[in-house]
Write a structure and sequence with these properties.
alpha+beta, two-stranded antiparallel ribbon, 6 strands, 38% helix, 15% strand, elongated
Length: 206
């Protein structure tokens, strides 16, 4: 019974292998498992697995014979437009998970348009970070990027642009400021409630 890692046909992603096959299986390359064959199957098909797979990478006849005895399987991996590797499954250390949850790196991009270079985005960045964390639990720090070259416009146009932009502003306080104000307000109410409770206890004894 084969006791080594055997990827399923069609599994695509990153594979890793132990020496000496770690020299040909690159962890950054995406491979797809196209075939899983026994050594006996290759031999019966007049192929030369020892010469083409084992000897070519520095393994010995003894290594090959051991794999024959252990029922090692030969895994065919395709990559790129025409690349192909044959790897004995004894040497795999990891292969792509096919029955799990697919993950992908993502980023949010917001086009702010053309703004004065001295406009402070600190509060906006802090708010976006807070929203991301509270919404999906990811702790991150947004980065403001310059997406065009700098241009100079006259004061009249600047004043018109600023007035138009500020007319759309509905909230001038950051989430942090709102939070601190709420905490202060709640603490004040707690003090009042405590004082009221103490007064009731002192003056209205059942």
């Amino acid at each position: 019974m084969n006791k080594f890692i055997t990827p399923t046909i069609g599994s695509s992603g990153h594979y890793t292998a132990s020496a000496p096959f770690d020299s040909v299986v690159q962890s950054t390359v995406v491979y797809t498992c196209q075939s899983v064959r026994s050594i006996q199957d290759l031999l019966s098909n007049d192929e030369d697995p020892f010469g083409t797979i084992y000897q070519s990478i520095g393994l010995t006849q003894a290594d090959f014979n051991t794999d024959v005895t252990d029922d090692v399987l030969i895994v065919g991996l395709s990559f790129g437009s025409s690349g192909w590797l044959n790897i004995p499954n004894r040497y795999f250390t990891s292969y792509p998970v096919t029955n799990g949850v697919e993950y992908q790196s993502k980023a949010l991009s917001v086009n702010l348009g053309t703004l004065p270079t001295n406009l402070d985005l600190t509060n906006l960045i802090s708010d976006v970070s807070a929203i991301v964390q509270s919404s999906i639990g990811i702790v991150t720090t947004p980065t403001a990027l310059e997406t065009s070259t700098k241009v100079v416009i006259d004061y009249t146009l600047d004043q018109a642009n600023t007035a138009s932009r500020l007319a759309n502003v509905t909230d001038t306080k950051s989430y942090k400021d709102k939070y601190l104000e709420t905490v202060t307000e709640v603490n004040g109410l707690v003090v009042q409630i405590t004082a009221l409770e103490d007064y009731i206890k002192a003056n209205y004894v059942p």
